[in-house]
Amino acid sequence: LKSVLAYSDPWSACPGDEVKLHVSLLEGEIYELDLVRVISGDAHGLGLDLRPIDCGLQGAYKGAKATTRLGSSLLIDKGPPLSTATGFEFDLWLWPTTPHAGRQAIICATDVEGKPLFSLEIDDQACLRWKFGNESDHLRSIQPLAQRKWTHIKAGFDPKHKSVYLRQYTKSEPLSETAQWFQTDIKSELSLDVASMRLSFAAPLTPNDTVKPYNGKIAAPCLKVGAQTLAEWAMLGDPATNLVVDKTGGFDGILINLPARAVTGPDWEGDVHDWRFSPQTYNAIHFHADDLYDALWPVSHRFTVPEDLMSGYYAFRLKAGSDTSYSPLFVRPRSGTARAPLAFLASTLTTLAYGNYHFHLHADINEASLGRVGVLSREDIHLCESDELGLATYDYHADGSPVRYGSRLRPIVNNWPGGEVWNLNADTHLLAWLDKTGQAYDLITDEDLHAEGVSVLAPYKCIMVGSHPEYWTSPMMEGLESYLKSGGHFMYLGGNGFYWRTAKSAHWPAAVEVRHAESGGRYTAEWAGHYHMAFTGELGGLWRRSGRPAHALIGVGTVGIGFDGIGHFRRTAASYDQGVNWLFDGIKGETFGAQGLLGSAAGSEIDATNFALGTPQNAIVVAKSEGHSLTMQPMPEEISMPHAAMSAHYDPNICADITYFTTASGGAVLSTSSLSWPAAVAFNGFDNDTARLTANALRRFLGG
Amino acid sequence: MTDFETLVANPWGPFTPAVADLNLRLRSGPIKGKFVLLALDDGRFELGQLPGHWPGKIERLGITYETVLDGERDILTCRHNQLTLEGRL
Q: Cβ distance A450 to A351 under 8 Å?
């Protein structure tokens, strides 16, 4: 397993900005730290090229293990008053997803000094326990909770009869017998009288090994005294925020570790699927015992980005024993300035969506999809054997619900230097090529584009994106569109780009939200009623299904997926036209790109034109891929009915289209339409036709 | 050569349709107990089996290979023997 872990915050910084580094040392007492510029992160194909930066950070440091508290919850720090003299009742709905997974906290309350008052929890028999003071004083429900069924709970103290009670009612299934209330109560000498209390829903107030955080939804919780409602928490509220407003008493709460909002409640019947138009049926929050937004480790180092540090991709490198870990730092120029005519746009939102993914360790399809046996790194093994680093939007929670958020306030261990050649690590093939050719560039990130829009793109003659710009927000799409409308040049050197509509929130700035709704090549499938994102209300899922396909922006959209690296490109007749034949200067054959560091230049995930979906009428396909195997299959949105001859082996429309078009404002776009393209650029020491075509386009786009 | 011998000679293709069919049969199946290769610090690879649930321990089987291809061939051979014994090939 890993010996040292770290995360940096923020990922993107300008000279003069401070970056915090949080380190946990799992073995030993000392770790080594330095900052490296990442030229190549591919340890096997191209070879690692990491250049140490002399910035005063290098050294050996004493470290300690940091603890991470997993699980989301709702915390009300200053809760309402409570007295047994007047009695009280908690009224709420539960939709437990793992009621048989042992003791889980539903409500915990202490006085302001931390003395336990009461708690409502699920016990190891899936029954509710309504507990007061110490462990032995409790009331247990008669009926176990039913998994994934709404149960209405009333838990209170009756001052008239001096008894504590627990009532529960599980909504019936349409064809089952009529549901009924179950009630249990006992006489109690309970005596409480507090002016304020600390309340937590879904997790204990203090972590303990006995009672775990809750898996499931909680809806419409309120606290009543007789006929009076003391507190009524709006579980939907503004779901982009971390605030849960008390509609009655002002006892507002905050959410910990980003549980899912904009989820269906007990009254949802499938009539309305957008929470904005039926908020009363979305009055629930789905908590998970494995949610993690912020690991909250102590700050180990504060690093100020030097004024003279070139824009680019850097990484904090930590070594302990035989283990090495990295955490990224993307140094960008100050807003509105540029130090080079070219900017490389790092796909950091895609990296966040994939952060710590391990579906390949749990999904039956893992090996058939890859076409080869799984080879697990130290990082993969750590992710398989430990749950402390949380999940990715490519995984399911332990309760079977899809993960909807990725966060960078925790160590992300995959896709950094030395790891899998995927996402940003695959993009280093292009960074290495730019370095080799002496081409100056600035580096900007998705988060910069999302926050500042077209102004971060505007200073550049050309913007380049790498292998896999899959997750884009509306502000990012609009920023790129504005840039292209103002005459910008764009090189899309990847595949499966601009695919999933993605959201961010200023209240959870380190997170990305994804809802893999309805269609698309996806490893997690969103649940019915949950297609609209909490952060923005937008329909989640494919940009294509939102009526804004990538084709209109960059000429192509995803059509196929297959990882065996088999195929090549063939020039089209149109490529010999004088308007585009300059792309092939120095390229002699009809075919090219059969080889690369990930196999063919046309592979992994591939895109094609579709004029019906908005590919510009003047777009020219200069080369198409062919020779793919049975492994290259169409994306689900490309087929309406499965059949035996769907693969690219049979269907020539499942191919990568290298596509070029000019814009009315004097700009141009080149889309090479294959995730494996950058790895092919790096093949044979960058001496190949894939690199030549890329260089021809870049030279033209920069005005050379 | 049989389809299996052809596959083992070149486990990453390209394949004829018949070999592709055999390849997919050998690579399909439940995740629990599926063989994987664990990258070791010295550049070799150790045979392991996935737990099929998360979090869970990967079973290390103590068999090592010099290259991924060596491991790949051994794993394919194990699966071929197993499916043949079970009458599924």
A: no
